[in-house]
Design brief:
The chain is of the alpha+beta class. It has three domains: 40 residues, no CATH class; 245 residues, Carbonic Anhydrase II (Roll); 33 residues, no CATH class. Helix content is 19%, strand content 26%. The strands form three sheets. Strands 2, 3, 4, 5, 6, 7, 9, 10, 11, 12, 13, 14 and 15 form a 13-stranded mixed sheet that branches. A two-stranded parallel ribbon has the order 1-8. A two-stranded antiparallel sheet has the order 16-17. A hairpin with a 5-residue loop joins strand 6 and strand 7. The longest helix has 22 residues. It is globular. Belongs to the alpha-carbonic anhydrase family. InterPro entries: CA_dom, CA_dom_sf, Carbonic_anhydrase_a-class. It comes from Cyprinus carpio.
Length: 321
């Protein structure tokens, strides 16, 4: 009887170890796929999950939201950046001196990565959607709160620990040289686990021109363990890459390792939108008003005001009287 009990106990012990191991090996559509994430990673079933659909008619305009200001993005130094295929995305490390102003705390850059779809000519691949519409891809630039937390490992599990800039990407005709600084090297990291050193470049080239119009809300990491620690900034203006560049993202990379017999394409690495659950999405502008245009001229900028802006200024003036 003792031998039988020991055998049964050993069997269940092994199954538990197997489950623990599997929990770390999540996927988007296969074993431990999106619908099962919460079973293995409890935070993925939380009430403040990301990504979300931004319904612009339900956003709350906040005039206190100032333009996002990247700091040190153009001071990339002499050391190369590291590009890495982690099996879920292509990720690039960023130097610690890069940061972003215009947020409630000081956040230092850690890394950036991409999300995309699989079908050429279909605008599906972004994680966030605006008024139900997705784009071909989405870039995330991840920062952690250096005012409160000692490092990224601590910050990512805590409230207000992370700040992520989200850039929605569309496909167009012209090659985007900034994104080419990353995409031109994807062939060197085709398989999971591969890394390559690439020439450092100005990260500002990955951003939209207009950094004053964005949506902001509190959410989570969009991949397991889905910690609800992220202050999200989603830029309203899209960035364009060429159709050939998008095709390269969709077709060059594998989520499997080189030694595996059957390579698996790294595609559709985006999470579906999550319930808002009564969260407030702030807007730095009034959606529907004619957009301000920012024209880059050296280090300065020229801003063109719409009619609504003049009305707002007149209203403030009258109230002051």
């Amino acid at each position: 009887m003792d031998l039988v009990w020991i055998t049964v106990a050993f069997f269940f012990f092994c199954k538990c170890l197997e489950c623990l191991g599997t929990a770390k090996e999540w996927t988007y559509a296969g074993a431990v796929g999106q619908t099962e994430w919460a079973e293995f990673f409890p935070d993925c079933g939380g009430s403040s999950q990301s990504p979300i659909n931004v319904d612009t008619s339900q956003t709350l305009y906040d005039p206190m939201l100032i333009p996002v200001q990247p700091l040190g993005y153009n001071h990339y130094g002499n050391r190369p950046f590291t590009l890495y295929n982690n099996g879920h995305t292509v990720q690039m490390t960023l130097p610690h001196w890069m940061s972003v102003a215009g947020l409630p705390w000081h956040y230092s850059a850690v890394q950036l990565h991409l999300h995309w779809g699989s079908e050429v000519g279909v605008a599906t691949g972004s994680e966030h959607t605006i008024n139900g519409h997705s784009t071909a891809a989405e870039l995330h630039i991840v920062h952690y709160n250096t005012e409160i937390y000692a490092n990224m490992s601590e910050a990512k599990t805590q409230e207000n620990g992370l700040a992520v800039l989200a850039i929605l990407i569309e496909a167009g005709e012209e090659i985007n040289q900034g994104y080419g600084s990353i995409l031109n090297y994807l062939g060197h990291i085709r398989y999971a686990g591969q890394k390559v050193a690439i020439p450092a470049f100005d990260i500002n080239l990955l951003l939209p021109d207009n950094l004053s119009q964005y949506f902001r809300y509190n959410g989570s990491l969009t991949t397991p363990p889905c910690h609800q620690s992220v202050l999200w900034t989603i830029f309203n203006e899209r960035v364009k890459i060429s159709h050939s560049q998008l095709m390269k993202i969709q077709t060059v990379l594998y989520s499997s390792k080189e030694e595996e017999a059957e390579p698996m394409a790294l595609q559709d690495n985006y999470r579906t939108t999550q319930p808002l659950n009564h969260r407030t999405v702030l807007s730095s502008f009034i959606p529907g008003r004619r957009e301000r245009k920012r024209i880059k001229e050296g280090r300065g900028e020229i801003t063109e005001l719409g009619v609504g802006d003049y009305v707002a200024v007149l209203f403030v003036y009258m109230m002051a009287d």
